[in-house]
Amino acid sequence: MARRSEWPGGGSDPSRAGKEPPPQDPAERARSVCLRLLTGMPRTRKQLADALHQRGIPDEVAEDVLSRFEDVGLIDDAAFADAWVESRHHGRGLARRALARELRTKGVDSALIDEAVGQLDPEQEEATARALVERKLRSTRGLERDRRLRRLAGMLARKGYPEGLALRVVRQALEEEGEEVDDLHADPF
Fold first, then answer.
1. When you count CB atoms within 10 A of the terminal residue's CB, does the N or C end of the chain come out lower?
2. Between vectors from CA 114 to CA 152 and to CA 85, what angle results, nearest 5°?
3. Closest Cα to residue 98, out of 151, 167, 162?
4. How many CA atoms lie less than 13 Å away from 5 in the CB half-sphere?
């Protein structure tokens, strides 16, 4: 009769083949955790530091490992912020304010956030807002104009666009569609 730790025909469980037990040295564990997390997607230094803290890695060991990863270029918060802004602005249509908020929650330094969101020029941000409104405009047809204005401006506000820009873009889109907007309230909310 085979022991529980052996599979029929001898040997150990093939699903565990190649899987080594986690290293016992805190520095090795920290390196292993960071490499595993960085394999899936880029992370900020703070995200990795939080993950190491949750796994009980001593702070001084975590600091040493994270500094080494920064030195060799595996952690680069500036590159992370730039890529995040590019991806989330073009993919989701988020404005500077929403992008800055997201980067802050990921632990990116304020100066790096300012630099990354500063790459979006006002014309680009307005063009993105126009495209978002244009896509949503059809789904609001048939609603009363005040309600359309609120819906469209609210959608832009949730994506971080300033109120003045949102109202201007929505009003222009409604005017282009033939909707009268002269007598709309200054504040649709």
1. N
2. 55
3. 162
4. 0
Cα 101 from chain centroid? 10
Q: Domain 23-71 - what CATH class?
A: mainly alpha
Amino acid symbol at 171: R
Written as one string, the DSSP assignment of 169-187 is HHHHHHHHTT---TT--S-
Task: Of 173, 111, 102, 105, give the one whose Cα is nearest residue 136.
Answer: 173
| 122-137 vs 145-158: helix crossing angle, rounded to 10 | 130
Tokens of 84: 């995040």
Cβ burial, residue 132 (10 Å; 0-12/13-18/19+):
buried
Structure tokens at 82: 């730039």
What gap in Å lies between CA 175 and CA 181, rounded to an integer? 7
Structural element, H or E, at residue 14: none
CA distance 64 to 67: 5
Band the pLDDT of 184: cuts 50, 70, 90.
very low
* pLDDT tens digit sequence for 29-61: 999 999 999 998 899 999 999 999 999 999 999
The radius of gyration computed from the CA coordinates of the chain, to the nearest angstrom, equals 25
Rounded to whole angstroms, the Cα distance separating 73 from 105 reads 22
DSSP 7: -
